[in-house]
Design goal:
With 296 residues, the protein is of the alpha/beta class. Among the domains are: 34 residues; 98 residues; 63 residues, no CATH class. 54% of the residues lie in helices and 16% in strands. The chain has seven helices and eight strands, in the order αββββββββαααααα. An eight-stranded mixed beta sheet has the order 7-1-4-3-2-6-5-8, with helices on one face. β5 and β6 form a beta hairpin. The longest helix is centred in the middle third of the chain and has 31 residues. The radius of gyration is 66 Å and the shape is rod-shaped. It starts with 5 loop residues before the first helix and ends in a 14-residue tail after the last helix. 7% of the residues are buried.
Amino acid sequence: MRKFTKEVKIAIAAILSLMLLYYGINYLKGINLLKPANYYYLVLHDVAGLTISSPVYVDGFKAGLVRSFEYDYEHPGNIIVEISMDKKMRISKGSNAQYKGDVLGTAVINLMLNIDSKEFYQPGDTLPSKHSIGLMDKVENEMLPRFALVLSRIDSVLASIQKVVSNPALNQSVNNIAATTEELSKSSEALTSIMNTDLPKITDNLKKITNDFSTVSNNIKKVDFAHTISTVDTTLTNLKTLTGQLNKPNNSLGLLLKDRVLYDTLSATATNANQLLIDLKAHPKRYVHFSIFGRK
């Protein structure tokens, strides 16, 4: 039996090591070299976020991987992407591949199958492809311009706020508010004092007044208004009768009130009596004589 030389053994070991290294690297990338696969090609204009071993999904199922990239120098702007699909995956004509980026900045390829077609692409064919608008594209194309507009408005609002804040009138207003707050605090303390001291006294007085009103009301309830009204009515009737009697000329009071001659006589008599009293005070000896020894 022929024996291998030492150099041959080293060469064989090196080759095996390189093969294992190549297989291991591809396995870590998700490429199984021992698994049979069909290879197809895509022509994309943008492969940002797409890497070797990026998944290829069919209805959410991982059915393949990105195998390699190659720039098409004959047609600038095109990038040829090689994908490996499961051996059993048959791609019907009318299907297309959609490239879409996700939130994390990575990208995937979704294979949209045309299940109504009975004709299929052969391995090595170039599949129709298009760039699908993903969340990151919407953020870049729609949200970022709006966000820039919002930032400009926020900047103008902040400038306005800065202008208002730097205005001396604002400081004066703040000082006025502080003074007003201090006055309100003092008023609150005074009100609290009134509530704690004066209000109980006022409440007690109100209670006393209420009790007095209650007593007066009870006393009023005890008054016999019917009897009182009847008495007043009787008094008014008697007064009316007396007034009628005084107006009649056939009685003494009526004569005194109605007879003018009698009034004048009484007036003259009163006048003479008054003059007599005056003269009596002035000359008492004319009317009164005193005698110690009994002479007139």
